[in-house]
Design brief:
The structure is a single chain. This protein is elongated. It contains 8 helices and 3 strands, in the order αααββααβααα. Among the domains are: 75 residues, GMP Synthetase, Chain A, domain 3 (2-Layer Sandwich); 33 residues, no CATH class. It has 179 residues and is mainly alpha-helical. Strands 1-2-3 form a 3-stranded mixed sheet.
Length: 179
Amino acid sequence: MSLKSINHVLGILEKQAKWQEQPFQRLLKFWPEVVGLVVAAHTRPLSIERDVLWVATSSAAWAQNLTFGRSSLLLKLNQKLPTPLVDIRFSTAGWQNPSVQRKQQQTVLPDEHPSYLGDEISRPEITPTKDVNTAFGHWAKTMRSRSHGLPLCPQCQSPTPPGELQRWTVCSVCAAKQF
């Protein structure tokens, strides 16, 4: 058994890591060096798809300006990448400040929605019908059974879930008309 020096082993590991490194990750490392600090402050590489680099810019003016000089930028990038890029696309789409966290939209659970009727409604079995009139009759019967016993909207007199009346004092259709 031969013993190899730690420097030899580390050299082999470093070569393997560079070989296994993804082109986009490698590009991110040298992006400021290739484009310059000013341009790097107004751009953010997003992805490489089908050998095309997609870059987000802080404004449309930056996107247009960089598009004019993309051929020279492409040459510089291809000198440092293992697989050459075919093109670069600049756009303001995807430009967001990563340090500012976006507000996550709150998800409303079905039972928290004002139109939710709960388990008061029995789910009828769905049976496929070939006749349109029969299907419509089945649907109308289901709607009547669902709305039976619901309070009426004070404006349009249609059956309305209690949550809607509590929230808007009218049904959702009448509330939408007010906005």
